[in-house]
Design a protein that fits this description.
It is built from twelve helices and no strands. It is mostly helical. Mean pLDDT is 84; it is low at 292-298. It has helices at residues 7-32, 37-59, 70-91, 96-103, 106-118, 124-141, 151-173, 179-198, 210-233, 236-239, 246-258, 264-296.
């Protein structure tokens, strides 16, 4: 079924997706105080999977989740374990807003990795934007103990790198597999893998956390549905920058749940990273427009 194109509607869906994912991440931070990172990773994948499966079966049907390229699905699942595990490790030790600020380097890493992995061309202006964004990350990392780079900050950077590699694999998977299969197998492989790895340090689940686990899973599933709707209805170059609204949401969660706010260096680093990311998206749109104009010439 082809949905009507509307950038305004797509923007609404994207904002809803970012809000849902920020709520999910707040839930992971709360759970990280009681369970090891790999166990939280298992809970993240397993709690969202039933909701996502219900959505897939009600819309696209069971045939849509049949995988074609098993190797890439397995790679994405392993990368998902690394991404969520590292992110949860950091969330236990730093504010959500600081972790999000560092994580915003992921789109810049995707652009950089697209050169060796996808054979795409990145011009000098976009390389400059990527370099400036990395400077922003260094600014955020500097407030660690005694001015040194902090381990939690490096773990977020590792999570962002894993996300970037996984995002590049999506570009390869879309040529053969459906979005539904990518979401379902990503969650399933991540949950099973993290569950097996978490066995040695397993902490018994507490009944009072059931609502938190359920809410985290529902928020993650709703975020995935909203994200899919956004990209089906609007132009990616227009709605992608709205991902940065996540910083607004997590600042709110930080204050509401933990009574913390970003420090001055985090604000400065966030401004640098967001500005470089927005410039990179703008250059991508300009380059694509110029390429289309060239192809349209007789």
């Amino acid at each position: 079924m082809t949905l009507p194109r509307s950038n305004l509607a797509a923007a609404g869906w994207m904002i809803a997706a970012v809000a849902s994912f920020s709520l999910m991440d707040a839930g992971m931070k709360l759970l990280s105080a009681h369970y090891p990172p790999l166990q939280v990773t298992l809970l993240r994948g397993a709690a969202s999977l039933p909701f996502v499966l219900a959505w897939v079966l009600a819309t696209a049907g069971p045939r849509s989740i049949v995988p074609v390229r098993w190797g890439l699905h397995l790679l994405r699942g392993v990368l998902g374990m690394a991404m969520i595990g590292c992110f949860v490790f950091a969330l236990k030790r730093m504010p959500l807003s600081t972790a999000y600020t560092i994580y915003f380097v992921a789109p810049l890493l995707v652009a950089a990795l697209s050169v060796p992995l996808l054979g795409e061309r990145v011009g000098p202006r976009r390389w400059t934007a990527i370099a400036i964004g990395l400077v922003g990350v260094i600014v955020v990392l500097r407030p660690g103990a005694d001015g040194l780079v902090s381990l939690p900050g490096l773990m977020v950077l590792l999570a962002a790198t894993a996300y970037a590699v996984a995002a590049v694999t999506v570009s390869l998977l879309t040529r053969t597999d459906t979005p539904q299969s990518m979401v379902v197998w990503f969650l399933l492989i991540m949950a099973v893998g993290a569950g097996v790895a978490a066995i040695p340090g397993w902490v018994p689940l507490r009944l009072e956390h059931a609502w938190l686990i359920l809410g985290m899973g529902l928020a993650g599933a709703l975020g995935q549905v909203a994200l899919t709707a956004a990209f089906m209805r609007g132009d990616a170059s227009m709605i992608a920058p709205l991902e940065y609204t996540g910083l607004v949401w997590v600042i709110g969660w930080d204050w509401l749940l933990w009574r913390t706010l970003p420090d001055a260096m985090t604000w400065v680093g966030a401004a640098i990273i967001v500005a470089s990311g927005l410039y990179l998206l703008r250059r991508e749109r300009v380059t694509r427009t110029a390429r289309c104009a060239t192809l349209d010439q007789p």
